[in-house]
Amino acid sequence: MIQRIQTLYLLLVVILGTLVCVFSPVQFLLPEGTAYFSLQTFDKWPLAVISIAIPLLAMINIFLFRHRMVQARLNVVNAILCLGHCSLFALYITFVVKGYEPIHGMLLAASEWYLTIWAAVPLVNIVLLMMATRRILKDEALVRAADRLR
């Protein structure tokens, strides 16, 4: 299980996905320039559900090492969840910047916002998931070729 490189890719997805749940991917600076407000992952429940589902699905996928085709399909589903996470996060940033959605009870319509390094993690997860899928399918082709030779 741990000998396979795709397991390491999936383990990285679990670690990075968990870190995204802990750290804030965006910060808003008040117009006065006095304080920062963060949009945490758990401030909005749809974002929290997707943020928890991504590392959880990757962890489950690690233990399905005997079912390679199921693993490949779950990786694609997980990559789609990562895309959903990115788009939902961009939607929430847009709502906050336009002044439609408050953060911590404050409307931050005229504030500046900054993405942190943690905003790029879902995109890194997509790349890791696609690399893992490629290796899983390569393993499946190797097993099928060995079965054909027997």
Concise synopsis of the structure shown:
The chain is mainly α. The chain is built from four helices and three strands, in the order αββααβα.
Describe this structure in words.
The chain has 150 residues and is mainly alpha-helical. The protein has a single domain (5-149), classed as Up-down Bundle (Butyryl-CoA Dehydrogenase, subunit A, domain 3). Helices cover 64% and strands 7% of the residues. The protein has helices spanning 5-22, 45-62, 68-98, 121-149; strands at residues 26-29, 36-38, 112-115. Strands 2-1-3 form a 3-stranded antiparallel β-sheet, with no helix packed on it. A hairpin with a 6-residue loop joins β1 and β2 (36-38). α2 (45-62) packs antiparallel against α3 (68-98). 27% of the residues are buried.
* Helix/strand order, N-terminal first: HEEHHEH
Q: Would you identify the CATH architecture? A: Up-down Bundle
Number of domains: 1
Mean pLDDT: 86
Gap between N and C termini: 24 Å
Strand numbers in spatial order across the main sheet: 2-1-3
The structure class reads: mainly alpha
CATH topology: Butyryl-CoA Dehydrogenase, subunit A, domain 3
Q: How many helices does DSSP assign?
A: 4
CA-based gyration radius:
19 Å
The first-level CATH class name: Mainly Alpha
Number of strands: 3
List the uncertain runs. Answer: none
Q: What percentage of the residues does DSSP assign to strands (E)? A: 5-15%
Most strands sheet:
3 strands, antiparallel
Net shape: elongated
Q: Roughly how much helix do the residues carry, as a percent range? A: 55-70%
